[in-house]
Amino acid sequence: MAISTRFTQLVGVRHPVMQGGMMWVGRAEMAAAVSNAGGLGTLTALTFPTPDALAAEIARCKTMTHKPFAVNLTILPSLTPPPYADYRRAIIDSGVRIVETAGAKPQEHVEEFKAHGITVIHKCTSVRHAVSAQNMGVDAISIDGFECAGHPGEDDVPALVLVPAAADQVHIPMLASGGYGDGRGLAAALVLGAEGINMGTRFCATKEAPIHDKVKALLVANDERATHLIFRKFRNTGRVAKTSVSDQVVEISAREGAVFEDIQPLVSGAKGRIALESGDLEAGLIWAGQIQGLIHDIPSCADLIERIVAQAQSVLRARLSTITEAKG
Questions:
Q1: Check whether domain 6-209 has CATH 3.20.20.70, yes or no
Q2: Alpha-carbon distance 175 to 197, whole Å?
Q3: Dihedral over Cα of 71, 76, 79, 85: its sign
């Protein structure tokens, strides 16, 4: 059975489960597998070196699924930014109907996507940014709790508080992100006021994820304590899996007078890609969230989504039944 929410109705999917944008992971294999399973798969635009390469990947994804899928465009602070306008044009010209934006100052992109009739989901890490995006005219919000992989912001607010706080002020459909990986999480998100969940780390530990089996095994073996918060002193906090590389990053960063250049050789995105694709866990960072503690297997995307939805329905029915019996 499906769970219908305002989010599933908005984007035309069966289940209220979205695959988040993930650098090097958000490729056609991943997005198509999630979409074919009834969720919303996502390509990650900046995984591809040029706008033309992104357009080719969008075309490849369309040969692998006829279901809706999204493209993530994350606007990163940089002295030499990628050609965002060209990536945006590639997305529009390729006929993509759903976009996930993230990062700083997305208004230019949101306005252009909306002008072409594209549904925009904006990912953010605070209530104030969610409200700002809502006022900007996005169609849905994905709000990232402190438990998440990647960049949780600097407020350190976990999902149990962040999601209902956002729900009090956000009136468009909202997804709960960060710390979700099973049906109990989906049930909780719905009760807290979200219309579904956005998962990243959990989808990395699936059969279709285009990463090395050794990385998937690491995610299964790790528990909820096996992450590091890095870049804190540089006001760009990131959560990554605990590995020898992230251990070094934390140790060097803690030194008196440490600057970003001291850790830069360890944290480059190119080295992270090598780690994901080769399985060499000492090559670079592995970005992962605290949900590792609830990852115990490597199912197909279809099996995972069906299991999450079935468990959520079961949990909600069981809790309601228990409460009713107790009152009786």
A1: yes
A2: 5
A3: positive
Q: Which residues of the chain have pLDDT under 50?
A: none
Q: Quick one: three-class SS letters along the chain? A: CCCCCHHHHHHCCCCCEEECCCCCCCCHHHHHHHHHCCCEEEEEHHHCCCHHHHHHHHHHHHHHCCCCEEEEEEECCCCCCCCHHHHHHHHHHCCCCEEEEEECCCHHHHHHHHHCCCEEEEEECCHHHHHHHHHHCCCEEEEECCCCCECCCCCCCCHHHHHHHHHCCCCCCEEEECCCCCHHHHHHHHHHCCCCEEECHHHHCCCCCCCCHHHHHHHHHCCCCCEEEECHHHCCCEEEECCHHHHHHHHHHCCCCCCHHHHHHHHCHHHHHHHHHHCCCCCCCCCCCHHHHHCCCCCCHHHHHHHHHHHHHHHHHHHHHHHHHHHC
pTM: 0.95
Torsions phi, psi for 198 (to 5 deg): -120, 120
Go through the chain and tell me how many residues it has.
Answer: 328
Domain boundaries, the chain: 6-209, 213-290
Q: Which of 230, 183, 228, 188 is nearest to 202 (CA)?
A: 183
* pLDDT single digits (tens) 176-199: 999 999 999 999 999 999 999 999
